[in-house]
Amino acid sequence: MRAIILAAGQGTRLRPLTDSRPKCLVELAGQPMVHWQLEVLSQAGISDVHLVGGYRSETLTDLPVTLHHNARFEQTNMVHTLFCALEAMQGDSDLLIAYGDIVYEPRVLAKVLACDAPVCVAADRAWHDYWLARMDDPLSDAESFRMDDNGRITELGRVPGSVEEVQAQYLGLIKVRKDRVQDFVQFWKGLEPNVSYAGECRDTMYMTTFLQLLINGGWEVKAALTDNGWLEVDEPSDLQLADSTFWRPTSRL
Length: 253
Hints:
The structure is a single chain. With 253 residues, the protein is α/β, with parallel strands linked by helices. The chain has a single domain (2-252), classed as Spore Coat Polysaccharide Biosynthesis Protein SpsA, Chain A. The protein contains six helices and 13 strands. It has helices at 33-43, 78-82, 106-114, 127-134, 181-189, 207-216, and strands at 2-7, 27-28, 31-32, 48-53, 66-69, 95-99, 102-104, 119-124, 145-147, 153-156, 169-176, 221-226, 230-232. The strands form four sheets. Strands 5-4-1-6-11-8-12 form a seven-stranded mixed sheet. The longest helix is centred in the N-terminal third of the chain and has 11 residues, at 33-43. InterPro entries: GlmU-like, MobA-like_NTP_Trfase, Nucleotide-diphossugar_trans. One of its GO terms (molecular function) is nucleotidyltransferase activity. Pfam families: NTP_transf_3. Residues 3-126 form the MobA-like NTP transferase domain. It comes from Marinobacter oulmenensis.
């Protein structure tokens, strides 16, 4: 198993905490967020970890990871950042992809690792209470997420019109099965750089858009469902939810 953590963004909504460091180094429950991720990965036996930095990436050199760099972090988005680590996608190994601004409990990762579909996506069924703790209107920041009866995702990433359109909330943790990693790479390479895909070109594409394109192309993308057990950090107020019913530090589980 090989993991790639995406941590190139500037984290402007977290300023001044990100004035001199990337989001993944902002402290949560006593240590940088990325340290919690590395701890959970290590507990699962995942030691081949790569991280794609961008903004203030010089502050990431002490981490026990193979560091890659998105030099165009100001003009690009998650999908471009992921494929800045193309060399980490070689070999016969499952590929785990994680956002750098999330933390998750071992049980969340275990659900993803146990899923044997070509692409597995961690998703939170109990998202509504968590979103309600973060904002007055949960739908203002939620994304659509629909599944069939077998847990196969049919739609994600759209602005939802109602809570019923959000069967779970995508949380930024994905596994690509080892026999499909090269197909995954080739699918991305086959996207035309200057064509608009749901209003986004290849360089500015969000991960949910890329996943939806895979689904539209016939890929089986399944949900690895959890009930809370994670946090994402976009605003300073998100830090206050550490060690809560939504996520508890690994050392306190």
